[in-house]
Specification:
2 copies of one chain form a homodimer. Chain A is α+β, with helices and mostly antiparallel strands. In chain A, strands 1-2-9-4-7 form a 5-stranded antiparallel β-sheet. A 4-stranded antiparallel β-sheet of chain A has the order 3-8-5-6. Chain A has a 3-stranded antiparallel β-sheet with strand order 10-12-11. In chain A, helix 4 crosses helix 7. Chain A starts with 6 loop residues before the first strand and ends in an 8-residue tail after the last helix. The relative contact order of chain A is 0.14. The structure holds a DNA duplex.
Chain lengths: 248, 248
DNA sequence: CGGGTATTTGACGACTGTCAACGCCAGTGG
DNA sequence: CCACTGGCGTTGACAGTCGTCAAATACCCG
């Protein structure tokens, strides 16, 4: 769980924290959310490469991403890791229903990030009182599940090129839906290493690199450590078979 | 959705239907569940190979499996399918939070099955009143999600042999936890084709066959179309890296 | 008994992994 | 200011798991 060296931002206004906004309390009337939850949450700075939690940790807190990119993954006995999802501002993670003991995955910060932490017990208590909060959590879970199933289809059936194209397209739309793209809508922030991209797509870093070079050579995209430019969006969607309107 | 040729079992007692028992209403006090839901549900016979619903169908009903095995999958543009999960008696499927329009996967009966259907709208209405029902659904979703993530790790990082060993181990424990094993606890029902097994593990039927033959040659298991005998359980768990106590 | 489905096996090819080396770049310390 | 260092990206050669194609066999059910 969060180490003592974390910088805790007590008393900082959380008004722009997504968990207090769109994601979780979107459907809860404002007076309720102000009343019952806001004062109980804390903001943390999480430097790049630091974990928020690792597999086996007690499920005691739920986190909302305010700033930065994080990687949710599961590790394999041979040391490899399978990326489950990139977490963007507005996502929340670490929620477990009451009765569940510990988490089955790990979350590490890709960039310097800011997250907001809520005690699980209070969420559970709130869910008993406010049906709309429970419904909202269920809705988030369901969308995440649909996304996982798209990923499973990719891991099991798609080629390396298709998987990478799909992932780029998915990230692009998730960023776009949150207003996290700049004026140049063909350019997106892309702060993940090729190794992480390989983790997410079930590929080795070496092969990930080859595919990126191929996509570049074909004029589809250009990627570097800071950002990624999509030169041919329709072709990217075509390669990745990206036709899912329900991106979150 | 269910075709007209479905045999509907109106008026049949549903007392042994898992959705009315363990899975969904386990935490709801009996008077409530009898009062509000039981009378609204219908039982259907679903013959092997028939779909309960296919991708894109409106999310209007939630189903509970009473008898039989079903396959939840997602199909790829090349015609291949990626299996997401085997559904066993006691599982439920097709639930979508209110506001979601349609389902992103398909469900087909592997064996002749009996399912129980509930209108989504009523579940949503109930969740607003009964917090324990909402909590139960959230819990089921979370466990299913953990299972999906194990599958993702397998699809992305494990060898064919590991994936198959893991899947067999998982099914074995799920059956055991529900009391669906016979007296001979090394023998489990196994009514799925090798092609379906390949769908679930991201392999071709041909390669699936080779792996099964190899596991047989090594004295780990013997499979046929009816059942599967595990000769060396500890080795099976070892190969599949099956160490997850939270199987559902 | 016959036809369709499922399993099994072989030969071959390809996508992807492994191993290794090199270049690039940023941060660091002398 | 510059060499040093570690992380990341890039490329080549080679190996292997797994997919594809094809055919034969076994199995199930009408």
């Amino acid at each position: 769980m969060l180490s003592p060296s974390q910088v805790q931002l007590n008393g900082v206004s959380c008004s722009n924290c997504p968990m207090h906004g769109l994601s979780l309390f979107g459907s809860v009337s404002p007076d309720r959310s102000n009343d019952l939850v806001v004062r109980r949450s804390d903001r943390f700075k999480v430097p790049a490469r630091r974990h928020i939690y690792e597999r086996g940790a007690a499920a005691s807190m739920t986190f909302s991403v305010c700033e930065g990119w994080l990687l949710m993954y599961r590790s394999h006995s041979d040391g490899g890791r399978q990326g489950l999802r990139i977490l963007l501002p507005g996502d929340f993670v670490g929620y477990m229903p009451s009765g569940e003991q510990h988490l089955h995955h790990s979350v590490v910060a890709v960039t310097d990030s800011v997250v907001c932490a809520f005690p699980q017990a209070e969420l559970h208590a709130m869910m008993e009182i406010h049906a709309d909060l429970a419904a909202q959590i269920t809705r988030i879970q369901a969308r995440f599940m649909a996304s996982c199933q798209s990923a499973m289809l990719g891991l099991g059936r798609k080629t390396a090129e298709q998987r990478i194209a799909y992932l780029v397209g998915e990230l692009y739309h998730r960023l776009k839906n949150r207003g996290l793209l700049g004026a140049d809508t063909s350019r997106m922030p892309f702060p993940i290493t090729q190794e992480m991209l390989g983790d997410l797509t079930g590929l080795t870093p070496v092969h990930t690199n080859r595919v990126l070079r191929k996509l570049h050579a074909e004029g589809v995209l250009t990627a570097n450590r800071q950002d990624l430019v999509i030169h041919d969006m329709s072709r990217l969607m075509e390669i990745g078979e990206f036709n899912n309107p329900a991106v979150i």
